[in-house]
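Data's thin. Show one?
=====
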Amino acid sequence: MLRLNSLDRRKILALACMVSIASFSQPRAISASENDTIRIAVEGAFPPFNYLDSANQLQGFDVEIAKALCETAKLKCEFVIQEWTTMIPSLLDKRYDAIISSMSMSAERREKVSFTQKYYDSPSIFISRKGAGIAGTAPDDLKDLKLGVTSGTSQEAYAQKFYGDVSKTVFKASPDLYKGLADGDVDIIMEDKLAVYDWLANTRAGSCCEFLGGDIKDAEYFGDGAGIALRPSDRQLLAKFNAALETIQSNDIYDTINAKYFPFSIR
């Protein structure tokens, strides 16, 4: 993932894998019938990209981009909260029509779904507690440490491949991962840089920790950025989303949303 947040989000996700949250935009949709609603899946637990606020309303960069795309494409859309590890299988089972949830376009995922053009890009990175004294991020540097990753993510796959001899703890969701690092349950974590930036910069708990080492980029594992995932057969919807994405990136809509969440461009 390029991916749960506080309050009772974990309880919500445990109780229901799919919850319809909101509908928005215009009355015309692209699908089998003119009145079909395009159902968009988000995890709802990956701040600042998608999360539930104190009123249990979906917020975040992914959510605002999705709304802008649906409005631009004149699609009637609604959100569905979906547990991360079953995102793609549920899409293929037609429980919803698109995933706009910071999904990296890895080679493995491209074998199962179609992706739009990227709508943002973010490397992965290691994070440790301040003053931990970790010499580096090579496998030998971490051989006596415990590495944390989130289940079902590109970071987990990358760590299993290149850090196979390093002791690992796999957490269910990003907030659990961050808490594990802050509490000392693990010594270092690997995470999407933009996602963990919000925790480091904007939360009291995140002040414990800092980036370690440089950006990690590997197209095989992390893809070419985050894209919107659709079923391969939904070519018309794919074209609609690509056209809408081009439109919002050429006017000020994308940049306005970007600036709300990050002090730098994530294109």
Observations:
- The domain at 124-221 is CATH 3.40.190.10 (D-Maltodextrin-Binding Protein; domain 2).
- The first strand starts at residue 19 and ends at 25.
